[in-house]
Amino acid sequence: SQKIEQNSEALNIQEGKTATLTCNYTNYSPAYLQWYRQDPGRGPVFLLLIRENEKEKRKERLKVTFDTTLKQSLFHITASQPADSATYLCVTGFQKLVFGTGTRLLVSP
Amino acid sequence: DTAVSQTPKYLVTQMGNDKSIKCEQNLGHDTMYWYKQDSKKFLKIMFSYNNKELIINETVPNRFSPKSPDKAHLNLHINSLELGDSAVYFCASSQGDRESSYGYTFGSGTRLTVV
Chain A contacts of B99, Cβ < 8 Å? Predict the structure, then answer.
């Protein structure tokens, strides 16, 4: 079955640095991956979708990469701000979404 | 102007009761979902409806019954509530028959606590 793995430990970084979150997948080859942000008490919010034939996707300070050889997607936030503190979820699947456990990012001033 | 709204936001009830959670989307999407987020924050799909038709029904106890009166609404009714049903329930919607660059839109969740 599809399995998404994210580092369950929180990532602590200083404001202004680049945050890099990792998503690894096993047992299948997804055609695309999605990244969502979830704040406490709120629902997930869609950020980016990257397809298997796209090595990289950017949106403002966000960048996502997709390495089908390593079976991995990296999610980068450049010039991080305290407002970027949240849990970031790597997601696969169509209609029946399969979520990773998420990585909590804490950006300190 | 909330895109996916669900009510109530909080629901505290006793074991054995029957309760409903309502969801409405104003995005014109044709597919709606219910997801459950457990105490470990893991999100898992329960049901999906496309144009009022059930298309995904994961291994969920039949005490849970979704109802879609129209494609803008998907309600979740739970009978004989148990302690293990305590979780956050999210409604979501999406458009199209293939993956979208706009992703899925989630509601803000209903925290159900069974005592």
Answer: 31-32, 49, 51, 94
CB pair distance less than 8 Å for B58 and A43: no
| B3 at A interface, C-beta within 8 A | no
Interchain pair B104, A97: CB under 8 A: yes
Average of per-residue pLDDT across B101-115? 93
Name the token pair of B52: 């009022």
Neighbours of A105 (CB within 10 A): 21
A23 Cβ contact list (under 8 Å, min separation 6)? A4, A5, A6, A33, A35, A72, A73, A74, A75, A90, A100
pLDDT at B101 over 80: no
Q: What is the pLDDT of residue B100?
A: 67
State whether residue B105 sits within 8 Å of chain A by CB: yes
pLDDT digits (tens, 9 = 90+) for B60-90: 899 999 999 999 999 999 999 999 999 999 9
Alpha-carbon distance of B110 to B74, in angstroms, equals: 14
